[in-house]
Amino acid sequence: MRRIALLSLALALAACQRAAPPAAQAPVKETYDATASADARRIEADVRFLADDLLEGREAGTRGYDLASLYVAQRLRAIGLAPAGEDGGYFQRVPMLRGVTQVEGNGFTIVRDGAERALPFRDAFLPGINFNEPKASVEAPAVFVGQGVYAPELGHDDFAGVDVKGRIAVMFNGAPARFDNDRRAFHSSRRTKAEELVRRGAIGVVVVQTDDEEKQSPWTRSAGNWNRPGMRLRGEDGKGIDTWPKLRVTATVSAASADAVLSAGGRTAKQLFQDLRDVKLRAFDLPGTLRLASHTAITPVDSRNVVARLAGSDPALKHENIVFSAHLDHVGVGAPVDGDAIYNGALDNALGIAVMLEAANRLAHDATAPKRSVLFVAVTAEEKGLLGAEWFARHPTVPAGSLVANVNMDMPILLAPTSDVVPIGLEHSTLQPLVQQAAKEIGVSLSPDPSPEEVVFVRSDQYAFIRAGVPAVYLDGGYTGVDGDAKAIQDAFLRERYHQPGDDLSQPIQWSDAARLAKLNARIGRLIADAPQRPAWNAGDFFGEKFGSKAAPTP
Q1: Is 292 a residue whose pLDDT tops 60?
Q2: Same structural domain for residues 403 and 473?
Q3: Per-residue pLDDT for 135 more than 80?
Q4: For the segment 303-320, what is each residue's pLDDT rounded down to a tens digit?
Q5: Are the beta carbons of 202 and 165 closer than 8 angstroms?
Q6: In the chain, what is the straight-line distance between the N-terminal and C-terminal CA atoms, in Å?
Q7: Phi and psi torsions of 70, nearest 5°
Q8: With b meaning 16 or more CB within 10 Å and e meaning fewer, what string describes 415-452?
Q9: Which end of the chain is more exposed for a tag (fewer CB within 10 A), N or C?
Q10: What angle do CA 315, 317, 322 make, to 5 degrees?
Q11: Is the Cβ–Cβ distance between 360 and 529 less than 8 Å?
Q12: Contact 265, 287 (CB under 8 A)
């Protein structure tokens, strides 16, 4: 889940309802490399099953996902890991609400200067999925609030000079480029912005796509999947968790229609786009009112995490747990591309799951068991907002205070031989020297994040553990090519096949690099497990200070 423009509150879009079976990809020619190592072949075998058309993209809450979770549970059983889910099994139930935008009943009307202008549904705007009211509408004055960021510690307030109480906040995605990476990541998150808007009394939100976002992720791609389901966690009362009901209606507007919303008082959308690049945005009241409406079908749905445990050997330390995580879901079935409607998710994240399984296999067959215990968690609904990881972090199947570290795997882009890996978030905790030691032993170099502006540290499952106070690292594929420019190949994938049907088994996945990544993961896990002290946040670390107190050690 990375490198797509951060679509904030309004773009939990929904997956396709279909009356006919989805169009499948062309048959992938089977190959067999007799020279491949056994670990590389195991990884390949897992990916070939999980990314097969049979599983129809593994969307959370579907039969395809259930088949994938059953497969992973039995692989963990075969490796020799004990079940660590609920009721003595490998599964942890994750209750959710499923929301699907309906074709009728959505509206976006600009009432200004005595005239009304209605933006066309899908072509110009998409309503956010409303998990609180099937039918909702609001008309109110609007106020432009830059990127909706309030960071007084950095001297930044996008709300300066305006009042959003009882109004609709109009804003761009992201956070100011001048912020350091940590604070930029935190303030870019949908959750942070929603909480601030609710605190200030906003009743609606409109996110306007910029021209830069349009270049990176064309509007037509999202609009083509306008009815893809969104999901939120479901509480015991049957209501959604983190759904912010005070924000009555949300919507996203295309860059092509930005002028209709933003141009007023001599300002133009083009000027504001440039002000965003120059970090010169200022809040201002928009004239007239906005009339927004949404229509959502809301139903309860359950999915499941898969949880297994390798018991530690040390009498004192075995009660502490290291968590390996990778998301098992993908985005399912959607708008056909070149006749193919199945979004297989081979790299995102069948490959991450397969690497985690091989790391589990390595650790389980070490000559001696690790001192601390190790959990392996294949989580659901990452693509819906990190929901499976959030549920596990809030309701772990082991004592919450026993979680000492998280090692996450998400979408390693291994399409060309490389000599490195990218550890995201390494600098935040005492995990750093352990990861560096493991990399040196395995013979792989560690490269910095090539795109820190993408704030991926808060955009995959490790962030759920970070919010629970658990130090974490996210291992990504490298970009230092052995035979050529691996980064150019990565960029082409992100531009052309990420969250598209083209992320399938026809890609030149480097199985040997995946095996090396699994070996590195296993070694990192071993070093964390055998270290005398549990990992700790570095002194003065932003995330450690904000969340670290939540992870109380087990008495």
Answers
A1: yes
A2: yes
A3: yes
A4: 999 999 999 999 999 999
A5: yes
A6: 36
A7: -65, -40
A8: bbbbbbbbbbbbebbbbbebbeebbeebebebbebeee
A9: C
A10: 140
A11: no
A12: yes
State the CATH number of the domain containing residue 414. 3.40.630.10
Residue 373, pLDDT score = 98
Domain around 292: 99-298
Give yes or no: residues 78 and 128 share one domain. Answer: no
Q: Are residues 60 and 182 in the same domain?
A: no
* Amino acid 7: pLDDT: 39
Q: Are residues 311 and 289 in the same domain?
A: no
Q: Domain check: are 93 and 68 in the same one? A: yes
pLDDT digits (tens, 9 = 90+) for 261-289: 999 888 999 999 999 999 899 999 999 99
Q: What is the pLDDT of residue 26?
A: 56
Structure-token pair, residue 289: 């009112």
CB 439 within 8 A of CB 520: yes
Beta bridge partners of residue 169, listed in sequence order = 143, 205
pLDDT tier at 23, thresholds 50, 70, 90? low
Task: Find how far residue 105's CA is from the centre of its chain.
Answer: 29
Domains of the chain: total: 2
| Cα 107 off chain centre by | 28
Shared domain for 136 and 112, answered yes or no, is: yes
CB 343, CB 293: distance < 8 Å: no
User: In this structure, is residue 5 part of a structural domain?
Assistant: no
pLDDT given for residue 338 in this prediction:
93
Q: Phi and psi for 272 in degrees, rounded to 5?
A: -70, -35
Answer whether 17's CB lies under 8 Å from 213's CB.
Answer: no
| Cα–Cα dist 367/348, whole Å | 32
Per-residue pLDDT tens over the stretch 468-512: 999 999 999 999 888 777 889 999 999 899 999 999 999 999 999
Task: Say which residues have a Cβ less than 8 Å from residue 367's Cβ, sequence separation at least 6.
Answer: none
pLDDT tens-place string over residues 223-259: 988 999 999 999 999 999 999 999 999 999 999 999 9
Measured between alpha carbons, how far is 110 from 223 in angstroms, rounded to an integer? 21
Last residue of a domain, one of 249, 277, 298: 298
DSSP state of 461: T
Query: At residue 17, does pLDDT exceed 80?
Result: no
If asked whether residues 211 and 292 sit together in one domain, one would say: yes
Q: How far apart are CA 522 and CA 513, in angstroms?
A: 14
Query: Distance between alpha carbon 394 and the CA centroid of its chain, in Å?
Result: 17
Domain boundary among 255, 276, 298: 298
Whose tokens are 């959003």? That residue is: 164
Residues 6+ away with beta carbon under 8 Å from 149: 156, 158, 175, 176, 187, 193, 196
Same domain? 394 vs 523: yes
Tokens of 408: 């996450």
Task: Record the tokens describing residue 367, joined without a space.
Answer: 């000559």
Burial class of residue 319, CB neighbours in 10 A (0-12, 13-18, 19+): middle
Distance separating alpha carbons of residues 219 and 257, to the nearest angstrom: 11
